[in-house]
UniProtKB/TrEMBL annotation:
In the N-terminal section; belongs to the enoyl-CoA hydratase/isomerase family. Keywords: Fatty acid metabolism, Isomerase, Lipid degradation, Lipid metabolism, Lyase, Multifunctional enzyme, NAD, Oxidoreductase, Peroxisome. It catalyses: a (3S)-3-hydroxyacyl-CoA + NAD(+) = a 3-oxoacyl-CoA + NADH + H(+). This is 3-hydroxyacyl-CoA dehydrogenase NAD-binding domain-containing protein. Residues 291-467 form the 3-hydroxyacyl-CoA dehydrogenase NAD binding domain. InterPro entries: 3-OHacyl-CoA_DH_NAD-bd, 3HC_DH_C, 6-PGluconate_DH-like_C_sf, ClpP/crotonase-like_dom_sf, Enoyl-CoA_hyd/isom_CS, Enoyl-CoA_hydra/iso, NAD(P)-bd_dom_sf. PROSITE patterns: ENOYL_COA_HYDRATASE. It is found in: Peroxisome. The keyword Isomerase applies. Residues 472-566, 602-688 form the 3-hydroxyacyl-CoA dehydrogenase C-terminal domain.
Amino acid sequence: MTDAIGYERIGDIAILKAQNPPVNALGYDVRVGLMDGIARAETDGAKAVLIYGEGNTYFAGADIREFGQKPKAPGLPEVCDRIEASPLLVVSAMHGTALGGGLEVALSTHYRIAVPSARVGLPEVLLGILPGAGGTQRLPRVAGTEAALDLIITGRHIKADEALKLGVIDRIEDGAPRDIGLAYTRELLDQGAPRRPVSEMDAPAPVDFDAVYDSVLKKGRGQISPATAVRAVQAAAELPFAEGMKRERELFMDLMNTDQREGLIHAFFSERAVGKLPELKGVEPRPLSAIGVIGGGTMGAGIATAALLSGLTVTMLEMTPEAAEAAKGRIAGNLQGALKRGKISPEKFEALTEKALTLATDYGALKDADLVIEAVFEEMEVKKKVFTQLDAVAKPGAVLATNTSYLDVNQIAAVTSRPADVIGLHFFSPAHVMKLLEVVVADRTAPDVVATGFALGKRLGKISVRAGVCDGFIGNRILSTYRTCADHMILDGASPYQIDKALEDFGFAMGPFAVADLAGLDIGWAVRKRKRAEGLDPRARDSSYADTLCEGGHFGQKTGKGYYDYAAGPRSRVPNPDVLPLIEAERAAQGLAPRAFTDEEIVRRYMAAMVNESAKVVGEGIARRPLDVDMTLLFGYGFPRYRGGPLKWADLQGLPGLLEDIKSYAKEDPYFWEPAPLLEQLVAEGRNFDDLNKEAAA
């Protein structure tokens, strides 16, 4: 046996203890240990086997270190079949999480007991695959087809009480896993309980699998693993167990060879790597317990809500008592959502709104805050005024943060006497919901202030990405470019509605014009006016049709009309009949003859613009690694996760072909399509963006 599985005998019960910290992942040594342990128990005179995990969890899932490598025998399907086929009574005692392969191992045992806090699930579809060790065949037999489909196609985790109701586990009992497992196994032996191989249970009831498949595929916006998992569950209902297992393995291997699986694995690892910065190794963040928020609009209220839910106390500063009360109302409304979802209790709601939150109208109230975030109007002079006043009252060592989306953090820091304490913390709205946080590091930001920004992001449950200072940082700078690409296609003949549909079919949650309506067209209008005031490059292709919409008071969803008409509600998205005539008038004024675009060309141009600007952002050091760009677009801009991010998508497409397309577009529009030097360099060297990620990790 391997050291990863311990073996002991208590009377006629053999105990197999997983001891592969930190999460008892089902790596090669664990799989060998389970096979050897079952064989030893069978020759050792035991009547039953108890399997449990040492430490914080039962088997939490596959060993991520083996992802992408050729699997070594025995594989997990073989291990599960061997456990189930044992003539001995085999019991699992579960605590922590039994996910993916962990739940598949548990389902291959004959009985399952769990502590009340245990959680189980089959999240493989979130990695672009499906359960491949019998999960799609065994779970429907114990939980029923509909419940199994729900768990498998969503990848959600369920608590022990729900698992008990579904028949996934047989008993819940508090106590140490070893103790409750031994007692339960002893009870089963004394009762003469029979072995219960799941494979010998009746096949689950069929449903309309074609309808479920179509529905899941549509809901997945192009992601294929959930829909493919439906076909695997269908095999459980329609085929004998052995043939169903064979079909599951075929479908599993089909998914293993897809770009989507590779994109989701990239997203999985990048999400864990994005906050690990070599520059912060050994750097301690500053203490954080009390924060201030300046500005109680939608953004400021969202930031305050997130902070309160994370256990921080918050002082909300507004300019008048009425504005402060309005801000409190927004925060309370946000917390009501958490209350309705069961995230907090009524008592917790009361404590957060009446004790942890303080309203203020005087900057002096912020004198004891460890960190202050301003979330006021996006205008440089307004920001500078706020930071001048804040500098006068904040205590020494307090972190002063701006939530600006575009503005130069260096200029903001320069109005203070402590630029080393100033940082950008760019939240995304609604800030208590959106996962992305851009930590914008100015020229003189101190390392421990950067560490504090990342510590705050972690505490708030955010995906924090380090960004340098430029107009728009990482995300909004890239957004400005690919949105400009869409605007150019409009001038040349495409419609906003064709572009939105093509990109939603590609996998985006919303197309760029629907997103603009959601965010508010006045935001883009303000940016255009600012850039025109600063002086546009004479080669730029400017247009004013969107300005005309704004001049008419049409700012999108919040006013009921933008590119779309929302008279029937925010989800109606009926094309606004005023838009196309405005576009046609713009083309005529500029002497442009419209041409037809295919959906494929729309996607290719849009993505090429995104990749090219992303490469410039990495090449200039605004983003340190390609994965920083990918995580920014995934968590802040609706990029389809199963494609991994724009630079992972570019790698999968092939950089040489993409660069050739960009060069061909540059012949039409050299100002906009200037190829990124980094992209040209990678192609010349025969490397790709993932090579840069690996070099950064090394």
